[in-house]
Amino acid sequence: MEKFVLVENIDMTFKTPRGSFVALKDINLSIGEGEFVTLIGHSGCGKSTLLNLVAGLLVQTAGVLICAGREIAGPGPDRGVVFQNHSLLPWLTCAENIYLAVERVFGATESKAQLKARTLKALDLVQLGHAADKRPNEISGGMKQRVGIARALSIEPKVLLLDEPFGALDALTRAHLQDELLKIVAKTKSTVLMVTHDVDEAVLLSDRIVMMTNGPAATIGDIVNVDLPRPRDRLALVNDSRYHHLRGRVLEFLYQKQMRPAA
Amino acid sequence: MTAAILKHEKFGTALPAAAPAVVVAPPAPAAGDDDAPPVRRQTPLVEKYGDEIAAFFRAAIPVVFGLAMFAAVWSMLAAHSTLPGPLKTFHSAVGIFSDPFYRKGPNDQGIGWNILMSLGRVGIGFGMAAIIGIPMGFMIGRFRFLSGMMSPIISLLRPVSPLAWLPIGLLVFKAANPAAIWVIFISSIWPMIVNTAVGVREVPQDYLNVAKVLNLSEWKVFTRILFPASLPFVLTGIRLSIGVAWLVIVAAEMLTGGVGIGFWVWDEWNNLNVEHIIIAIFVVGIVGLLLEQMLMLLARRFEYR
């Protein structure tokens, strides 16, 4: 598979008042085009740090990051980011939130009508066409997260970066949105890098699960290939022995090899 | 009759026209007519607005008691001193407000003119403070260097009593009116600078991350994120500032003279017209309250959460 996102020998050290803190050490990872990769690990293991490096929100201490053949130097609209807490601007309607992104990326080349059409298309993709004129505080948490996903997808990013997108939602809403994300990704054929700490979510969604060791100086402990056929169905997988085997491998890594002393 | 209506609703127009006659209930004029509008029980006014009426009285009764107590204490104090009582003051107020806009020379003008002149000074001084203070607050909030540069100066000048600035104003402008405006300006600028700067600094990192991820231009960052996010803080600054400005104008006008509510108080003191002084206190209080309420209304329009 073509190496679409390339992470080579990445080190990340934060300077803190109490000296430097090595968050990531020697990370090597490549993601193919159209691949869905999840990063999983215990809290504080630096999975979000790695995602933010790919997003360009942080700058690595050492190593090289490449996205679609170009070195990553700062954030850019070729990578769409969905934040854990949706980060919608509360003074704009759902449509305006998306329009802000669309306008930035396509504003120079397209007419207003085309930009509006793109905005509505993105909302329809997450089935929120009816909420276009609602403010974020007028819709539910799950809907906000869907608007966040629509905003990230609306700019047609080369890579979709999801930072625990469903972490703040209740279990039922989360399952619903996972199913929806599966459908959207199947439709858009997006390349996705997603941070999660939910084992079921990782197995259900990904092609590969990247399991990270505990920090400090966290690195990639192991990678599980999820060879379950797509489209995947949550209910069918419950009785699938391969699903349970994969789930077991991730759990084993997290709770035996990388068990944390109770905090 | 109730039964007849129930039947009507249940079977709709499918019911034969003769059917209502079967019902034994007391014949109502509408019962036999299919086109008649359904009879609705009239809800008494109390039942309809009961909650609103109760809420109104719950809110109003303490206010009435408070005002009554205030008037009682005032009357008692007046009875044992030379202070005019509420009734005497009220009669005097009726006299004043029956002709608020008369002009009998530069030092004898109606209360309306005095209030308007004071509001005018506050408007100019406060307006200039807003024009300079709010953008300054934005710059200080956005750029750490500017913040470091300005914060010692602000910390030093902010606690200075407003009237201490009056001699400087008189010296520089060589006239009373600009000096009074200057005092309003310098005393009302600080809350706007400080609050705006805090507002900009408190803009959630999440929103700024959105801006970074999308590579928004500095102008878009300002208009779509910084400005709306800090607007509630800015409005709080404006509210505090206008309060300060209105506090200070009375004192400043007492010293500078001319036409204005502060000078009017001083003039009435020289005339030993104590009723008018008390009226002026009420006028100052009520105008201040109205200014505050207006800005509160404005601020409520910009609450997002």
Overview of the structural elements:
- Chain A is 37% helix and 25% strand.
- By secondary structure, chain A is an alpha/beta fold.
- Chain A has a six-stranded mixed sheet, sandwiched between helices. Chain A has a four-stranded antiparallel sheet with strand order 2-1-4-5, covered by helices on one side.
- In chain A, a hairpin with a 2-residue loop joins strand 4 and strand 5 (70-71).
- The longest helix of chain A is centred in the C-terminal third of the chain and has 18 residues, at 171-188.
- Chain A is globular and about 55 Å long.
- Chain B contains eleven helices and no strands.
- Chain B has helices spanning 2-11, 45-79, 86-98, 111-142, 144-157, 166-173, 176-201, 205-214, 218-256, 261-270, 274-300.
Tell me what the CATH architecture of the domain at 111-300 in chain B is.
Orthogonal Bundle
Proportion of residues in β-strands of chain B: under 5%
Helix content of chain B: over 70%
Question: What is the rounded Rg of chain B?
Answer: 31 Å
Oligomer: heterodimer
